[in-house]
Amino acid sequence: MSTAIGLTERDAAVAEAAAEGGLRLAADVFLENKLALAAAVTFAVIALFCFVGPLVYHTDQVHTNISQTTRHPGSAHLLGTDDVGYDELGRLMVGGQTSLEIALGAAAVAVVVGVLWGAIAGFFGGIVDAVMMRVVDAVLAIPALFLLLFLASITTASVGILIAVVGLIAWLVPARLVRGETLSLRTREYVQAVRVMGGGPLRIILRHIVPNTIGTVIVNATFQIADAILVVAALSFLGLGIPPPSANWGGMLSNGLNYSYAGYWWLVYPPGVAIVITVVCFNFIGDALRDAFEVRLRRR
Amino acid sequence: MDSAATTRGREGRRGSIVRGPRRVAAAAAAALAVLVALSACGSGSSSSGGGTRTGGTATLALPPGTTPDFIFPLVDGAHYSVANIEQFQRLMWRPLYLYGENGKPLVNEPASLAEAPMFSQGNTQVTITLKPYMWSDGQPVTSRDFTFLFNLLQANKANWAAYLPGDLPDNVKSVQVQGPTSFTLILDHAYSPAWFEGNQLSQLMPIPQHAWDKTSAGGAVGDYDTTAAGAKAVYDYLMSEAKQPATYATNPLWQVVDGPWKLSEYRTDGYAAFVPNKQYSGSAKPKLDKFVEQPFTTEQAELNVLRSGGIDYGYLPQPDVSQAGAIESQGYDFSPWVSWGINYMPFNFANPTVGPIFKQLYFRQAMQMLIDQNGFVSNLLKGYGWPTNGPVPIKPDNPYVSSYVKSQPYKYSQSGAESLLKAHGWTIHPDGVSECTGQCGAGVPTGAKLEFPLIYASGDTITSQEVQAWKSAASRVGIQFDLSEAPFNQVIADASPCTPGQTCSWQIVYWGGGWLYGVNPLPVGDQQFLCGAGANFGSYCDSTNDANIHGVQTEAGLDVMTRFEDYMAQQLPVLWMPYRPYQLSMIKKTLKGVVQSPILSLTPEDWSYSK
Amino acid sequence: MTGYVLRRIVQAAVVLLLVSVIVFVMLHELPGGTARAVLGERATNVAIEQFNKQNGFDQPLPVQYWRWLDQIVHGDLGFSFKQNESVSQLLADRLPKTMLLAGTSVLLALLVSIPLGFVQALRRNRLVDYFLTAMAFVFYSTPAFWLALVLITLFAIQLRLFPAQAPQGSIGQIVAEPGGMVLPVLTIALVSIAFFSRYVRSSTLENLLQDYVRTARAKGASTWRVAFGHVLRNALVPVVTLVGLSLPFVFAGTLISEEIFNYPGMGLLFYNAAVARDYPVLLGVTLVVGAATVVGSLLADICYGLLDPRVRLARR
Known about the structure:
By secondary structure, chain A is mainly α. Chain A has helices spanning 9-19, 22-32, 34-51, 53-56, 88-124, 126-141, 144-154, 159-170, 172-185, 189-196, 201-212, 214-237, 249-257, 269-299.
């Protein structure tokens, strides 16, 4: 995963650059980089498709219809039906809702937990930092898929559980990144000034440190979203997805792959392509944001 | 070795995508090299039909998750499986009576170790005469080998997977040896000959006393088994040897066999290769040079190898059944393996909250009427399957199934289910949760809801589809199932019979595979439906049923069987589900003589390649 | 330097211990229990209690953990009930095979991605760069199991170039059939190439714009000379860390690849053990993989420290 890389000199510099100007810089990026803009627009279209689509294209995604299994795309069902009779296009929309909800939710959890963990560790330093970071290292050392296989098998997967489970793996890298930044930020004059004036650590962390890490965090968050979609797809493939009648793209893809030789292409390509496009979009966006912060760095 | 087969394979592919002469040659050469290395040397040279030859290797694909992992025939609970018994041990050590003759669940006389049993004294005694077989080291198979087995069984029955209190070996008062190859069992009371031969004697396989009767690897062979302590010691020693799978093919103990095959190679992933036992005394001597069992972790992996021609005896995963034609044109015969079993979903009658609801017959009837078995068979199984209507399977053709069971007493009817529930005090909320607002039955409180967690085994597409379709049908009358998937092992673990003092929270589970009447071919239901039986997951208890089952075990004739199955079909101790063939086999056209036993035993000594 | 190395080693040891604790606690939260899985569905509760007692599953967790740690130190990683073999034996059998698969994949990925990333950086924002970037993104964003199936359908079934299943048996038998390794390696490598090449690209870019490059060019050295002479070496330094730290990702990749291709390595062992609730095997594999990652990143950090003095002098 692109984010499973440790902190390097370059990242630290990027982080610093990002700290100066964060959100405004992000906006600039989209105006300059055509590809990132295209990616953002594509994602907006996909989101609309998933959340607004069902209001326009009504299908029953709750009741099966076994007399209509694996029908070819046609007038009755624009993308055919799946192996228990659900309309595939409708399922793609509903599945997209779940996939995006989990990805965005997991990224949010990762960001919140990671930022707090990293900021606290970086701010206090010393033994607190050492212990907290060793915990991060320990969990990072175990391959995510292995950890996920465990976690998801303890519980019955639901959207909430998956958000928690994927988020639990994903917070590690933002934690590291934010900790690194906090280490440098806390030596700044204005932070020292607040401390002298009697500001409590929590206040400093929340008011002064965290906002300055927004840049890095945004970049990382976009990659988290992309990774989360892939991870949930892998989990569904390994049999640990959300039980029916709920749908998500990864589960649809892995179920459809059972029929790949049967030639039921409409069960494979729509969810597969949806996953690839969405993940590519987020990767483009994140990449562009990161590049932009680097450019900013070089211009200095 | 393989060149002719590859040539023929390539000829078959001439109609499909070809990229130009040079690339075909290069690709073919590479494919040839790989095929030779990968697949066992299989088919022989082509010729016009008729006549088979000796030699060749046949590779069988094992279904996912079913690999042989235990070689000692006195199997313990953890290793009680088809993969170990019918498809591994029985190739090497033959039971007294092997079932599965010609695709029917009847005794296969030529492959059995003993002549037909003679019951006498009002069916309280049975005399068995062994055929003149030899062990692979030249010693004859004698009654002593039987008494050796029996002694070990008696001293270690608690550990024997097939042990049920009251059955073997408890029901044998004594064994009287009449001669070197004949002995008489004195039983504790009269038994139905069909039951005793099919479900008891068929589980016994003489083991080589002259080679195995010792208590340590370096020790001498003796008669240790004649004392209880000695029998335990011998058993412990043999079990310890069996716990070293890496040595299965090399340990001299396991090379003393009376069956047609000897293990020549074994790997811990389940790969097993057999070569013929030259001393085999049975009439059907092996014609192949080698028989291989190849494990796969997923059906897809097996399908991929099958499609590339690397398997001689493979299977088509059910979702890919539309591929049958394509694969047949690559030189295979499509042959669904009709197995002898039933499929069902148990209710947990012992669950404190919902047990009382399950105990209402009308409720079980309504649930069964929401299962569109015929619809599942035609739409989900694509015709490769058949409904289960009672404890006796309707296929393959057999003398046991009754006309009542064949008539499918509870046909799919949503309206029927709805009126049954309404008539018994339930208010129906379609797509919601129905509630009890009247007199719903003993122990069912007002306000009770029809919402149940349903756990089903993951990894099987059909199981998942069936469960989804049933959930959908049930939701229309307000019965809500909260689905969750779990690995097969966990589902089985969860579905354990509740004992007092144990938390008993499961309600309905479905492992999808059903019950195979394998080692016990007479479908008497003593393991699943008898009150207190180990595999009676739902704790179903009915005294009429118990009496019926005992009748089948002790009285001769088919009337008792009919009485038993009709009652079960009507009473619904479990929910019946469609049963599927064991696998949709794809057998190379050149591999002749394969008759798929409904008991799932493998008899590769009958197979040979055409000339 | 010694101080740096010692600090790192102590940190690694602590992390390793934490890894073992995490793994142990989590595995014991799994429902279903080993007893039932081993003894079968017919087991009585009495038999289960006996089994738990015999194998120490009824002791309090800290006691079990201590016993387990003690065993590990003596080289006994436990006994797998499902497979009737000691865990150490299983690992000794499977680990080399996964190392072979993972090692070959990473090597291939590096061999391809280093020149690829390098070229992309030198030709930044030209067509080559865009095209390769697009390819990288697509491969990186495709679920690995789908990619594997596409490879199988294309190369194994339609073209019949490679078998659909990985070679089986001992490591000698596997090496003797290199054709069977191609698709499993490709599945992992393609995704790794995508992500390594992006990294090499940005690392090279960063170096290209450094002062020393401008100085060298001002002195008259050609771009290529500077590139190969200085930039490449410096750009590769972070790649060392990258390889070390991408081990968890590669192991996850081997899990899926081994499962699809039936490759008898640790990933497949792990997957089967997870389904079968084979505790000792799960513990053993996770521990070994976690340890490998910790050791890997320790070595990477030491290398990085050797190569880049700024790192070891700064307080981390």
